[in-house]
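JOB MANIFEST
job_type = single_chain_structure
chain_count = 1
residues = 361
[input]
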Amino acid sequence: MAQRQFMEHAISDWMRGTGPDSEIVISSRIRVARNLCGVPFPLLATNQQSAEVLSQLAAVIEQPEMSGFHTSFHRWNLAELSDLEKQVLVEKHLISPTLVNESRNGAVILSEDESISIMLNEEDHLRIQCLYPGLQIREAWEQASRIDDVFEAHVDYAFDEKRGYLTSCPTNVGTGIRASVMMHLPALVMTKQINRILQAVTQVGLAVRGIYGEGSEAIGNLFQVSNQITLGQSEAEIIDSLYSVVKQIIGHEKAAREQLLENNRMRLTDRICRSYGILKHAAIMDSKEAAQRLSDIRLGSDLNILNHLDPSDFNELLVMTQPGFLQHIYKKSLSTEERDMYRARLIRDKLSKSKTTNGGA
């Protein structure tokens, strides 16, 4: 697959599928952090040392065992990509801002459908990321574990019998895994229950962040729920704990949606239809408003208030309306005001191709 094909499509092929509870859970992700034994971690490694790490890890992808994943893998060194191309990969959640801004001899290896992303020389020497649609956190872990086993068979990991896998950040020491689930929770926000729910989540050792992880804002009613503890628990315990809490949040969101339909159907329908009308006709749209109104119409689709709207359109527009992707689509640098104009145009064009009808009025 040519490099441009990874850049041209806003959503990855794996996101076009559906998974369990996909009306609320957008995606499940496992990220595994590993470092090589006897080599300084990336923040302290010299240019030569990081280059050697890159060569050693990249060679693993060529091993026969990787054919068992039934996909081709494609590697790009970050130094060979333009700033805009790197921004697009960040907006697609395929690489991290850390790999872009702080890495030395950084690279990314992507599977054909982009469900597997392997970052080299990020905060740690190796970061394996596996993504699945819907609530499939256990499936994502099984995939990531298989890839991890292949690497461990060919390189020596930094490992301590007492502390587990050693990582640059102390909060990742132990299993070295971060399990996270991206959730769309508009009804809990509308019914003002979200703060209570999220406070309860943090009290059981989980973290709640925005769409782009730590430090990002929860725009578009999207929340990323992940484990905070990696030391003292097994991988299975981490996965099971997250899965259990996410199922409870799903239950609360479904109850809140039923409450809105029962008590405020007309107001809810009006809100969804207004957002749809504004998205179809607005001449200017900033990214925050776009995310909120897209969230409204995604809810309308899930509740059959708006019919024939493909939920994947919501995922696609969330990426396509980001600054980097907008500039990539229109092939030019855009000021903030120009981005707002082109964002509105892009949304209008996308929605005009759908056959959405109002099924709830």
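[summary]
The chain has twelve helices and twelve strands.
The domain at 1-174 is CATH 3.30.590.10 (Creatine Kinase; Chain A, domain 2).
exit_status = 0
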